[in-house]
Description:
The protein is 67% helix and 9% strand. By secondary structure, the chain is an alpha+beta fold. The protein has two domains: 14-268, Up-down Bundle (Rhopdopsin 7-helix transmembrane proteins); 288-440, Reverse transcriptase/Diguanylate cyclase domain (Alpha-Beta Plaits, 2-Layer Sandwich), CATH 3.30.70.270. The strands form three sheets. The chain has a five-stranded mixed beta sheet with strand order 4-5-3-8-9, sandwiched between helices. Strand 1 and strand 2 form a beta hairpin.
Amino acid sequence: MKKAKxxxxxxxxxxVPFVFYGLVLLGLYLxxxxxxxLFHSLAEIFSIVVGCSxxxxxxxxxxxxxxxxxxxxxxxxxxxxxxxxxxxxxYKGMGVxxxxxxxxxxxxxxxxxxxxxxxxxxxxxxxxxxxxxxxVFVIYTAVIAAALAAIFANAFPACFVEGAxxxxxxxxxxxLISFILVGAIAFLLYKRTAFDRNVLQWxxxxxxxxxxSELAFTFYVSVYGLGNLVGHFLKLIAFYLIYIAIVxxxxxxxxRLLFRNLKQNEMALKKALKDVQRLAITDSLTGLYNQxxxxxxxxEELRRACRYGRPLSAIMLDIDRFKRVNDTxxxxxxxxxxxxxxxxxxxxxxxVDVVGRYGGDEFVILLxxxxxxxxxxxxxxxxxxxxxxxxxxxxxxxxxxxxxGVATVDCDKTTLEQxxxxxxxxxxxxxxxxxNRVRTG
Length: 441
């Protein structure tokens, strides 16, 4: 009962801002019926306040977050808000910039939207990177100053012509900005593991509404038109959703994000530890057990076989004239051929069989529950599998064959060393017989 009451209280508390924002949107719409210029000024001022608030929240929460995504985004929205302020002051009917027509605010709008979209694409790069914020301020200042100089010097492409409406440059820019924002969504989803789920939802929803806003701004002919009205409403909602996301990241859920990052770091550490453990027991080239770990596992298998009276056999294998292969085709091809041999082991052997690289082109295999006859059959399969493998090289196809020696354990008088020694003697007997052979010992 208490939990349900607490949940309802929490939902009511979270619903208050949305109710307030809904009333704001209603008030703005009513103001548009009285004066579109009043509506535009109020709508832009509201989005400017939200943009500056995003910067303030990001700046004040920078010490609590271990990434600089929020700080970069907040800084970007500070400069975007500056351009939006100039756009508001330059709007038709304001009279702040005499001698300029409706083209000026439209140019300022496009400059602000390019700045916004590109910033949203770039910002996820700082989820895992360090950020020196002061050079960022310098760069944004320089870029914005250059854009303003081009606009007020009439060097910026025209965006609006009185009586004709939007220019092709303006429409193409809106489509290009929308395309950039789609890329920003894709980048966010690619980096989704770095975000709390709710934060990611707010960010993606904001970007979707921003795209809808940009598309709405491609339809109007008059700066007081319906497309302009709808575009501003969508922009307002998009700004507010970004604000909610920053509030949750910077104020309400920094600990959750911190713990998420700690969890990710813990998982990365565990993976690194597993990698180190794997490297400690395996041969880096073939992925088979190294000699040391093979001996440890083989000793355990030998004790088990002798304790329960079960058969156990060993195979020693080496590649015929491997030095000649390296001399003819190069060591890289030789390494690939050794990997092919290891692949034959994986295909022909069971999961319980123990395989190790003893060094160079020599391998050793332990076969639990296999007597001498069964082990010889396994060795023959391996010999044929290896002989059929081929690598295409610049000097023609490269192939190898193998010699295999097989021995089985006699628990009354056999240690692991003696078992492998007998298999090794059988291997050399196979070599003396003409190579590409299997011998038992």
